[in-house]
Design goal:
The complex is a heterotrimer.
Chain A: H1 2-14, H2 19-34, H3 39-67, H4 70-74, H5 81-115, H6 121-149, H7 151-178, H8 185-194, H9 196-221
Chain B: H1 13-26, H2 39-46, H3 50-62, E1 66-69, E2 73-76, H4 81-105, H5 110-120
Antiparallel strand pairs in B: 1-2
Helix pairs in contact in B: 1-3, 2-3
Chain C: E1 3-14, E2 17-27, E3 31-35, H1 42-49, E4 57-62, E5 65-66, H2 71-76, E6 78-81, H3 93-103, H4 109-118, H5 132-144, E7 150-154, H6 162-175, E8 182-187, H7 190-196, E9 199-204, E10 207-213, H8 214-220, E11 222-226, H9 228-233, E12 241-244, E13 249-253, H10 256-263, E14 267-269, H11 273-282
Parallel strand pairs in C: 3-8, 3-9, 6-7, 7-8
Antiparallel strand pairs in C: 1-2, 1-4, 4-5, 9-10, 11-13, 11-14, 12-13
Helix pairs in contact in C: 4-5
The chains are: A mainly alpha, B mainly alpha, C alpha/beta.
Chain lengths: 224, 124, 285
């Protein structure tokens, strides 16, 4: 467990060099979020964008590791490969949560400053969870890819994977429309909305878990 | 204690160490019972392998110049000074023997040889 | 003598490269140098010992324990320096202390900063701004600060100037003052190992060519220089390998005194490790 803490400390400390860029990003997103016409739109935009930014920061640590060829050195420390992968997932999830909390807080503050009213926090949290699910989906695919192909090549793979996913989904809907199957989309959506936060959380957890298992499997066989 | 090592010399390094320590023992610069530096610290100070210093010490033990106390290190042995002198004398004799036979072949007289000795000893 | 590191019949096959039947023994209290050209198999051997790659067959024991089964326990007591791999270039020595104290149970913060001080490294500058000598010293400081018993070093002196190299060799000899310690160090700069290594293992094209004590290698081996006519007189079994040069033959012999006695009045040079390596690689039999 200590080793995991050490690895997370390492990633967080080296992000110090990223600090300024991060602040600029946050500022840009907050300002551009405020350009939205409705307060609702602004808040959802800010929250989701911050989650995305922090999620991508987590992914960026893979590039740092690759630059320093850190993998090999890390495996000479008293750590198991499982701990190395686990530390990465914990870091990424931690950063995503930080993004979500910051997003919700920023939205609340802006909303209060502009309309002297607190926003609907329940709704904000739903946005946040939606954002988290989105980034979990991206990271869930990208992290195993990077373990398999390396940070630079792995980044290319993600585009291909997402493109294929989009094509598949599009294809299903297209075929569905063609053959006139009435997908009970509305019904499903209704059910989902009632339990939205729970459903989002559950999906996020499943994605991270499955992704972690795959990543570990890939990494345990990798020759560094 | 000074030990000077030449890496370019054809004499093996352990031999160089051995000879220099021997000289110091015979000249009484190293006194009986005196503790020598450990093989590891000597290796470090001379920037050489531990095995090299070890074989030098071990040969000195075998020849009776050093004694080893398990776990404590190497000491200058209480060797009979007479015996050591005897040994050295033997060496000198052998060398003079060689010198004399060369001198005889080359018609160099006893007087000339004596003169040479005087000069080498720094006397007029 | 007890061995701190043992490699037995290690094999590892890659596309286009193979490590065949590697055997290495590092006794306690000793420095073993692994020499060879780039691509000879030094790094693959070290990576196998550290279990960052999976060996195909063979056995590796460190402190008498299997290096895969007891990996975590073993790694608590090893200090590692890799030529081209470290935590990150975006960390300063102070950051690294915060990280490493979570990694090793026996991390000694005080000792670490003593080394940082001794090596004149700035505590709050990221290592990206360090010279290659400073970076190497940082890696060595990290490798020594959890009181390891075995140091495994891959090319620890490459890219260093002579002064820095000298300091680092000093540190290695300091480390070995404790008889329970051991060092396994690879280098293609053979002159570094010529002085301080107790044993030298020479690897070429994925195979161990020879393992000798430094003294056997440098005091007994010799290089005979002679003409072609003289060369023809020598019995094949009396030399290891020879190299034909433009004006003379260089012949590597295992026991120069014996050779001189047998063939009488030859020019026999005291070889350097590099000379021996060259004749082994380029020479014929």
């Amino acid at each position: 467990m200590n080793g995991i803490k050490g690895l997370i400390t390492k990633d967080l400390l080296q992000l110090k060099t990223y600090k300024r860029t991060l602040i600029v990003f946050i500022f840009v997103f907050v300002v551009s979020g405020m350009q939205q016409e409705t307060m609702d739109g602004a808040m959802s935009m800010i929250t989701i964008m911050l989650i995305l930014v922090f999620g991508m920061v987590g992914i960026a640590t893979f590039s740092y590791d690759e630059m320093a060829k850190a993998d090999r050195y890390i495996l000479t420390l008293p750590l198991t490969r499982k701990e190395v992968v686990r530390a990465k997932y914990m870091l990424v999830i931690l950063l995503t949560l930080v993004g979500a909390v910051l997003g919700v807080l920023a939205s609340g503050i802006i909303s209060y400053a502009m309309s002297k009213a607190l926003p609907d926090f329940l709704e904000l949290i739903s946005y946040a969870l939606g954002g988290i699910l989105g980034i979990a989906f991206v990271e869930g695919i990208q992290i195993p890819c990077m373990y398999k192909f390396g940070a630079e090549k792995g980044r290319m793979q993600i585009f291909i994977v997402i493109a294929i996913m989009a094509l598949l989904l599009g294809g299903i809907f297209f075929i569905g429309e063609k053959i006139n199957v009435n997908l009970p989309v509305n019904n499903i959506l209704n059910i989902l909305t009632n339990f939205l936060p729970l459903v989002l959380l559950a999906l996020t957890a499943i994605i991270y878990f499955v992704s972690y298992k795959i990543a570990y499997k890939l990494y345990s066989k990798k020759e560094i | 204690m000074n030990i000077i090592i030449s890496n370019s010399s054809n004499t093996p390094i352990y031999e160089q160490i051995k000879e220099q320590i021997k000289t110091k023992i015979i000249s009484n610069e190293l006194k009986a019972g005196e503790l020598l530096p450990s093989i590891r610290s000597l290796a470090k100070d001379l920037r050489i392998s531990v095995i090299t210093t070890k074989s030098a010490y071990e040969q000195l033990v075998a020849e009776g110049y050093l004694e080893t106390v398990q776990g404590k290190g190497f000491y200058v042995a209480n060797k009979n000074i007479e015996m050591m002198r005897e040994e050295q004398l033997q060496k000198v004799e052998n060398l003079i023997d060689t010198a004399v036979s060369i001198a005889k072949i080359s018609n160099i007289s006893k007087g000339e040889m004596k003169n040479m000795l005087d000069i080498l000893y720094g006397e007029e | 003598m007890e061995n701190i590191l043992e490699v037995k019949n290690l094999c590892k096959k890659y596309k286009g490269f193979e490590l065949r039947n590697i055997n290495i023994e590092v006794p306690k209290g000793m420095i073993m140098g692994l020499i060879g050209e780039n691509g000879a198999g030094k790094s693959t051997t070290i990576k196998s010992i550290l279990n960052v790659i999976n060996r195909d067959s063979g056995e590796i024991n460190i402190f008498g324990l299997d290096n895969v089964k007891n990996e975590k326990q073993i790694k608590e007591d090893i200090g590692v320096v890799l030529d081209d791999s470290f935590l990150s270039d975006y960390l300063n020595p102070t950051d690294i202390n915060k990280i490493m104290k979570n990694m090793y149970k026996t991390w000694d913060e005080k000792l670490y900063f003593e080394y940082i001080e001794k090596f004149n490294l700035p505590r709050n500058k990221i290592s990206k701004e360090f010279s290659s000598g400073m970076k190497m010293k940082l890696k060595i400081a990290v490798a020594l600060s959890h009181h390891p018993k075995l140091l495994i070093l891959d090319e620890p002196t490459s890219g260093l100037d002579p002064v820095a190299r000298n300091e680092i060799l000093d540190i290695f000899q300091d480390f070995i003052q404790d008889e329970e310690h051991g060092i396994f160090v690879s280098s293609h700069i053979t002159s570094d190992l010529e002085h301080i290594a107790d044993y030298i293992t020479f690897i070429n094209e994925g195979e161990i060519v020879l393992t000798k004590t430094r003294d056997e290698l440098l005091e007994n081996f010799g290089i005979v220089k002679c003409s072609e006519e003289d060369f023809k007189k020598f019995d094949k079994k009396d030399y290891v390998k020879f190299k034909r040069n433009r004006y003379e033959y260089d012949i590597l012999v295992e026991d120069k005194v014996e050779f001189a006695r047998k063939y009488d009045a030859q020019i026999i040079d005291k070889p350097t490790i590099e000379d021996i390596m060259l004749i082994y690689i380029k020479g014929e039999k």
